[in-house]
């Protein structure tokens, strides 16, 4: 149940306090206040959580400050597609880069930052090919406690400086704890905010709800949330909704292969057939991550890497963002070297993606609208 | 271990009998004789099965009729790609239609034949659009013993006659028992062999080894074998090898989605990322079956059916054959109606496939050959 | 829909032919005649298959010979538990051995018969410990076409003769083709029917419906059907129902571990928690197969083999039959040696099983009947 | 690689600083300092993390303060079983309760605390039956952001006070964020430390490595870590090792069913066959959670709940701890009511568990030690 408050309702007002006082006394009910501060008007919504079945709309509508009461019968309340009232924007712009279900952005970069030299070589190559987005891993979750876990805050200063130098506008960067967001914010500030950051939630944290809530509360950075590799799609979409229910609607969902282990010949079972599914169920842009899906540099008999083939598969069906690992010297990469593309393959990769994107646009332009069964 | 016999070795000769007599006495060893009768020369190979580790090449080479002894250290001996000696043809032609890792054939048709009228309407539409291949299901394996299981032999006469009328050259048709092959052969003969048949082994029979052996022994019809939906890729490729080890090398492997049940939003988990994998591991042409993978007529927000999107995904990565369900009146289909395309969508489907195929060819023509890690 | 005919209705009668003539004309409907010949009365049921939704009970009740019409709304019509009318027997006796949801039988034996010596040693040990059941594998389905596939019909004569010598009453024996049933029947006859055989359907053939129908049609031998390792429980129970719908109700379902491949530390994921589930959904006795579930001789720190632990788990929850691999010399076994127990462990195994069985009986005797939620 | 320092090495000493200064300069190497403060001696170990392959033992041994260098070649360095040097204790006592691979403790309690009344009724029943352990859920991770997520810190005061009143010594309580540990510590202090708490890491946080590190750093509370429901056993054991590598060795691993979704007839696929596996791979006590595995109150035809049957299966194979949900009024439970047992079933449950435990002890006392293959 959602209470939509009167415009500009102020938490410090007597009425507001009366409202929350009454909510505090509801048995078995918790609530979350979500405020969206605009230039002219501030919108406040209160999400009631728990067993709201016993509450009536009438009962809640008479509470102080309440303008409207909405019963949340639909899944993915904020991010989902609903029969009525999808009036909220389905796309966003961040630092000059557009994200939506109609756009395509490529984020080529380093799975794990391992030295200023690699970061420099990577970003230099991106600039040469007109790219303004990249991925740079600083905080790396690893299965074993004894494995390398990224350089963390130490590498942020040079990563951000290099980004500024090469005109990078958005860096996708995984965080595994809320303190990392603070470290990123501080490092950006210290380097004069030369670039933007899209916070990334990894597949092992898809259901780390406390992290989602804390990352969702901030609205400075957009968020890329990876699908959980061992949970259902529905559970992953609910996880994305955690971000949105806290206020951050700049969310992109990333498909990265599932862990079915049915003798998967790739590192994971590529799930890019779900690109149209996610677009149908929600209004989020959909990212694909061929690197972690395929996990190896296998070449098909036609001379093309599986990595290229699956990237093409995602894009030809409408993917909106591609996360792809490169490395100047894969053999020396500290994490996931075997799946990294070479810098010499960047031009070809971008050309290949462009072909598939063009085909996607031609396919949708064929003009026949199907009706579902 | 494979014994390659002298050319034209005859089973009825004294030497040949002496050879098999000696093989009969080997403890723990079974064997299978495979003869390939050519116009000028007949090749005979004997596959030794069981614990051949104790046998030496020298010991076997001196047996009567034996020309050469090959130790089978490699998987998928006949169909696989090997470092040495892939001298056997990797493609074939059947009834004027070519199948290989470089070609593309579309098999649009009925999942289950339910009436002469549907078959006529389907094939009429195919002819109108220049198609010479189709799928027609007569024998349908069903989960419940109380469900409709196809019209079987009853429908074959009109199916084959209509095929002749509309210029269909190859019909993909599932068989679930070896007696069906006889019924098909008889019905073809009775109708004057108006068309060709590609026998189809369904996903529930991928490891029905007795059926595979019997279907593999005949070399009249090529075979389309579906990947098992709950076994590993390696196990499915071994199943295809059963066909080939019995003599039939005209084998196509069909990807049809896996049964991971990780909350799959489609009927099955689409596995078309494995198109390049199967082509790398074997020399078989690779078919995709979007209908059974997706299993529903869901439409993406871009107006395109998921069925079209996943078909495009398979083709853009190099699929060689597409099996796709249509029905004149899906609502009246006795089996799998919900996933059938409408005849009015055939032209669009073919056009969409053509776009993806063209893109595949352009992609591979980009000309950079990658090296694996 | 099931048509229950008048008692002693004869297929050769005019009425019966009139009935089938009318059924032949029903569009989209197939049917299967099932006769149960008793000493005094012969019962005939006709199962209508296909889209029976359009037929009415009234319409069918007036057909010749028809006494009663039952709409099959329930799953597992013959083997399942239903709210009304579970009047058919839920247990059976075969060759003096009882099978039901209340009994326990141990079938220790050879996964694959490899020599008369092993079979003799195995059965000798069984007799010494008072056992009258065993398993003996003659026909072995194998993933690779080049692996040993059992001695088949060749070993049957000595297997049956030894069974007679050692007082074995029932041998569980896998068949992978209907011709094997004929071979078994012939070999039994040739050796003077010294023992009984329970036909076993392996996990790769759980959905080999043609084999199920043919094995189900004969009522001479009871059938042990293994759960499919990559399909749902519902699908496996439907497979068992194929046997019953053809007339053979002496069916035991065997749990043998699932192929989840989630990094299973055993060969398969042990599914013996489903013992009570199968007993709740159907009236079949439930067998467990610890050997194929665990697949290895791993020892826990308490000195007990995992094989013993999981067998105890199945029995303590009410399993009715245990299939367990032994071998006089596991290192020399042609199939699955690593999982075989030693003959010297037989006494301990039987004692361990007896402890768990006693505990199961004490547990159920605690006397509190729970009510489900 | 682990550097074991000289006893009583002090971080503030010059030598120590010299050491860490040198470690800081190692390329691609991170490190973690772990100190175990004893009454007489303080042990310090430094875990080197990352690509340690290039470092030699000789090179590290000469660094200041270093007494010994151990290359970590084995998995689960701290918790695992190793061929050499398992000198660290494999069991522990907390608040008077023993945990080890030889003991058995039952933790019956509330999945989610919903009122002081339920908590009182639950603990009252436990005391009546001589139980000193319980489970009480305050922080509940939920799939949907709009579902009830536990009363959190609000309920801790009365939960702890009631625990004191009824003589509860250990409460298993899930935490989903490190701040919860602080809240628990504070509430315990505020109520005069009337009871002990075993921190619980839920299945969705098994790979929330930041939480594991922070919980592992504290050594006040033992930790119960649940196996991840969609990852491999190896990955879950590595997660437990995260706790131990930070210093907390009082770790219990909990099996709670896997999410295979192969049409599981229970909420999860019960994995209690892995009890002996975890005991073989590690020295941790093994807990089972029948409630979350089964997830429903289904009754077998023998009158026994599946919940009882699977609990018996875990215990008969040597489980060391049982986590089981009860509720005074399941229909009113805010979370997972359908799987909760009734207070009236507690006596029967404990008796049933005792029977299985006794059987386990008799089974292991049979006295034959097996050798693995």
Write up this protein:
4 copies of one chain form a homotetramer. The first copy, chain A, has 373 residues and is an alpha/beta fold. Chain A has 2 domains: 69 residues, 2-Layer Sandwich (Alpha-Beta Plaits); 273 residues, TIM Barrel (Alpha-Beta Barrel), CATH 3.20.20. Helices cover 31% and strands 18% of the residues of chain A. Chain A is built from 11 helices and 14 strands. An 8-stranded parallel beta sheet of chain A has the order 7-14-13-12-11-10-9-8. In chain A, strands 2-3-1-4 form a 4-stranded antiparallel beta sheet. The model of chain A has no long low-confidence stretch (mean pLDDT 90). Chains in contact: A-B, A-C, A-D, B-C, B-D, C-D. At the A-D interface, strand 3, helix 6 and helix 7 of A face strand 3, helix 6 and helix 7 of D.
Features:
TIM Barrel, 373 residues, homotetramer, four-stranded antiparallel sheet, globular, Alpha-Beta Plaits, 2 domains, alpha/beta, eight-stranded parallel sheet
């Amino acid at each position: 149940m959602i209470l939509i408050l009167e415009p500009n309702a102020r938490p410090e007002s007597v009425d507001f306090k009366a409202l929350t006082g009454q909510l505090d006394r509801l048995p078995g009910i918790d609530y979350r206040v979500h405020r969206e501060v605009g230039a002219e008007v501030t919108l406040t919504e209160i999400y009631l959580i728990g067993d709201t079945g016993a509450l009536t709309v009438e009962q809640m509508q008479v509470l102080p400050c309440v303008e409207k009461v909405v019963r949340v019968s639909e899944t993915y309340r904020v991010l989902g597609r609903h029969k009525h009232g999808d009036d909220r924007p389905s796309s966003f712009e961040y630092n000059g880069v557009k994200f939506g279900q109609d756009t395509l952005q490529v984020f080529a970069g380093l799975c794990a930052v391992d030295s200023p030299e690699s970061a420099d070589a990577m970003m230099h190559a991106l600039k040469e090919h007109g790219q303004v987005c990249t991925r740079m891993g600083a905080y790396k979750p690893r299965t074993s406690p004894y494995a390398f876990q990224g350089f963390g805050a130490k590498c942020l200063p040079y990563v951000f400086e290099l980004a500024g130098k090469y005109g990078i506008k958005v860096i996708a960067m995984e965080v595994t704890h809320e303190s990392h967001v603070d470290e990123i914010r501080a490092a950006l500030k210290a380097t004069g905010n030369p670039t933007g950051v899209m916070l990334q939630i990894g597949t092992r944290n898809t259901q780390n709800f406390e992290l989602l809530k804390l990352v969702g509360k901030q609205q400075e950075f957009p968020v890329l949330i990876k699908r959980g590799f061992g949970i259902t799609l529905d559970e992953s979409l609910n996880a994305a909704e955690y971000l949105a229910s806290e206020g951050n609607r700049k969310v992109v969902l990333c498909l990265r292969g599932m862990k079915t282990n049915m003798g998967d010949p790739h590192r994971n079972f590529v799930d890019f057939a779900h690109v149209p599914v996610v677009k149908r169920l929600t209004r989020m842009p959909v990212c694909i991550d061929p690197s972690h899906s395929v996990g190896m540099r296998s070449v098909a008999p036609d001379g093309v890497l599986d990595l290229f083939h699956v990237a093409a598969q995602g894009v030809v069906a409408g993917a909106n963002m591609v996360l792809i690992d490169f490395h100047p010297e894969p053999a020396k990469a500290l994490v996931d070297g075997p799946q990294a593309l070479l810098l010499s393959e960047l031009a070809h990769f971008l050309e290949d993606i462009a072909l598939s994107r063009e085909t996607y646009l031609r396919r949708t332009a064929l003009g026949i609208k199907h009706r579902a069964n």
